[in-house]
Amino acid sequence: MSSPLEQFEIKPIIPLSIKGYDVSFTNSSLMMVIAVCSIVLLFTLCLRKRTVVPNLAQSVPEAIYEFIHNLMRDSIGKDGLKYFSFIFSLFLFIAFGNLLGLFPYSFTFTSHVAAVGCLSVLALCFNICVGIYTKKWGYLHTFLPKGIPVALAPLVVPIEAISLLSKPFSLTVRLVANMTVGHIMLKILAGFIVALGVAGVVPLLFDACIIIFEMFIALLQAYIYTILSCIYLGDAIHHH
Questions:
Q1: Long-range CB contacts (within 8 A, 24+) of 213-217
Q2: Does the pTM of the predicted model rise above 0.90?
């Protein structure tokens, strides 16, 4: 039985090196492309025949749209809806990455710190840019809130800076840990099924239940990642 950690190994599909840097197109890159193409394909097929009274297919993207819209309105406010496209894209990319990783012989790029970490840093940079655009020089109060004596700046500013920079870490660790643990459990149970032969029907049924549970976890983690991103964006717009 192969190691449960083998499924997380990044393998180059198209080896490529530029000035000594490995920029190969890997299985992780492939799954990201598949995730984006799946999103575009789903929305294209569901919205190709739009009607005033939506049919079942049209209701799927509209339900997702309304869900994220309400999520942003409740957590950020109406003035945050101008950034709907970013949060909407973030949710779909994470959700599809989580769900596609459950297919046999696929690769879960959301289980890797590098992939999710880059996405989280991008979200942080986006929040900082929004904060600067919204508050101009007032954004500096993020590091020294109003009412705090200037004498406490050497203590407060580093604390606030660490708090800001820790946001991508909290987003990344939560998602990566949940995706990694879930797939390790599925791999171990799959190994028992093969090893036990006919008697493997019991772990097979249990594995099927775990897969259904992991589908729920995949969507839940995408929701948690999105709601935290909304909260952090709301802080950039409204805080201090």
A1: 214/102, 214/182, 214/183, 214/186, 215/99, 215/102, 217/98, 217/178, 217/182
A2: no
